[in-house]
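ingest -> validate -> predict -> emit
validate: passed (alphabet ok, no gaps, 280 aa)
predict: started
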Amino acid sequence: MAETAKPQTSFGGRWALGIVALAFLFVLMPFLFWNATWFGRPLNDTQISKALIDQAHPRDIQHALTQLELRIEAGDPSVRKWYPQIVQLAADPVNEIRITDAWVMGQDNSSDEFHQTLKKLLNDANVMVQRNAALSLVRFKDDSGHAQIVAMLKPSEMNSPFDGKLLARLKPGDVINTGTMVAHVESPAGKKEVRSIVPGTLDRWLVANDSSVTIGQPILSLLPSESAVWEALRALYLIGATDDLPEVAHFARGVDGMSPQIAQQAQATMKAINERNQPN
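emit:
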């Protein structure tokens, strides 16, 4: 007697709905993450006011500041009602907020309050805050941050924030962004992360891997990032002095790994400096 054929299970119904739902989540989740972290998402006045005082969510404050920057650039006079809060955020304990804040204040060079606050930020503990303040001051025709801008063209050293044994994670030539973890420092209390404060390219380690380091000891040399060089050259086009020419000339000759636009800007900057300093 022939066996009865078993009915074929249909690949539909709840299975199909489940697959569709899963596919939808694969699309939805990245969108929700992007929407939550993208600073270009417009905010209305109520949302900006709420975000600026939300100390529990620093990224929301950054988002609001970025939206205020766009409004300032568009010439929206209503933005001035938030100026006292923008100035107040220059003293926020979160580095990223002060970094963004220093850049935003440079968008309105008619505000004396912004001008004076930016001058104070040149002495901020965070190098990136200093840099943004120096660049913003150029918009005020103020060269108080000249030293910080020239330093953006030079290699910098990163110091160990902890005592212990250095465990390097990166190698020379690796590109580093702000916040990139470059190493661990191991101590009896455990491993602690060492993250870069500024962007750049790892030039060389100043101490051997697995060796002991102390707080404040230089551990690596960092070459400047292309974005830092670009902004510094643009600023020196306006405020550069003859003493800056050797640093600028280094980039005018072209640098491996950097775009031709850097060399072009360096050449234009050198020309502007020379013309500005010619005897009458």
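The CA atoms of residues 162 and 262 lie 36 Å apart.
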